[in-house]
Amino acid sequence: MLTVIQSADGGLRGVVVDEEGSALPGARVRIARVDKEIVTTDRGEYWRLLLPGTYTVTAVSQSEYGLLQSEPTKVVISNNLGDGAQVVHLVAKMKLAGRFLVSSYQAGNEDGSPLGRTKYAQGGSSLAVI
Fold first, then answer.
1. Which of 44, 90, 102, 119 can pair with 59 through a Cys bridge, CB separation 3.0 to 4.6 Å?
2. pLDDT on residue 40
């Protein structure tokens, strides 16, 4: 029975935050090789009992502005019973599509005839006029 109690604090735990350090409640934490997602608490906390081994952990959160996702983080769990959980904090960043339309407009002359159309598009991390 003591072995079971000691193992209860083993595995993985942490907090999921955005780039500004604000907790992300309701974020989904995914651990490769584990079939179940973990949903963070109101304070962005998560925990999972895990056997010793190597795992890849990611966090995903949907905000009013789009999808936030952490980089995949490799974690090696090698704790002995009673040593406590491995702590891994995840930072979820905004993921943008590779190319999308930001804005467009059509300018005209005083007589109403069109001058042409200008489109602004985001590609990666740069803004371009097309």
1. 90
2. 96
